[in-house]
Write a structure and sequence with these properties.
Helix content is 84%, strand content 0%. It is an all-alpha fold.
Length: 73
């Protein structure tokens, strides 16, 4: 395990946590960004929250795999 894997893992954890928390809290500032607006128009606000929640959990899982050394970068 090297510094790049740890950095990548922490980055995935931060991004995943932000996405998952935003899916739960449902803040307007998050869902009015350009990328989120695409999903909101396509799926609606509630399903966009589900998509971002699943993405967040997946990113957290990848971050944990990077940090533990299970997946090499």
């Amino acid at each position: 395990m090297n510094a790049v894997e740890i950095f990548s893992g922490v980055l995935f954890l931060i991004i995943g946590s932000l996405s998952f928390i935003a899916a739960i809290v449902n803040p307007d500032w998050f869902f009015k960004t350009r990328n989120a607006t695409f999903f909101v128009r396509l799926l609606g606000r509630n399903w966009s929250r589900v998509v971002y929640g699943v993405f967040g959990l997946a990113a957290i899982a990848v971050g944990i795999l990077f940090i533990t050394g299970t997946v090499a970068s």
